[in-house]
């Protein structure tokens, strides 16, 4: 059986899980322990990031490489169109989702931890003692991005980086809403890798409320203030949630 080394909370792992589900391929998830578990991952894959797929004797790191492998080896329900312009658009969008949405989403999530107690608490490991939980809340002010300015660019992200990421994501969400107003999916009449990449990489902007995503209940439906709750982007999140309902499998 296929084995996926992953973090449940990783949006790049989510992209692979979404495609595995769409292709109806059974797989076993192996949750990697941040830190120590990544040493084992390094031993098997030569690098320390998730996701990594083990398919028999083949080990593949990187979500894009994994999905290309799946597309080659398992032809049912292809996710990369064969028609040239659509294929080009699909591959471009996937790369844009990985490089732009994925990184900006990480920044805005970090930036909103200071303001959103539900996000902050949901992201703590479930076994965090109560005393540490309340300490995290009383330190919340210090998590606010404008407190980080003095830390410089070497530590976390500066408040300016976070504002910039926010602006980029607003523009991305506007563009996505415009495309999806006219068509059911981003590049074709059926879902493609572009849809799964964009939907998954937006995970940190608004966490999906779907049973297949095994994240703390407190996180489900929560998101980044000013993006997740902006009515202008409701159409995008409704589309994303429908993609989950139709194609993500609960087990
Ligand atoms: N380009 C990679 C990015 C993977 C990535 O950033 N993984 C993160 C989790 S979302 C990770 O493993 N972080 C741990 C680390 O860098 O040590 C892909 O598409 O798979």
Automatic annotation (TrEMBL):
Concerning SUPFAM superfamilies, the annotation shows: GST C-terminal domain-like, Thioredoxin-like
- Please identify the protein, giving its name as recorded: Glutathione S-transferase
Q: Which domain of life is it from?
A: Bacteria
Name its species: Prochlorothrix hollandica PCC 9006 = CALU 1027
GO BP: glutathione metabolic process; L-phenylalanine catabolic process
From which residue to which does any coiled coil extend? none
Q: Which GO terms describe its molecular function?
A: glutathione transferase activity; maleylacetoacetate isomerase activity
Cite the InterPro entries for this sequence. Glutathione-S-Trfase_C_sf, Glutathione_S-Trfase_N, GST_C, Thioredoxin-like_sf
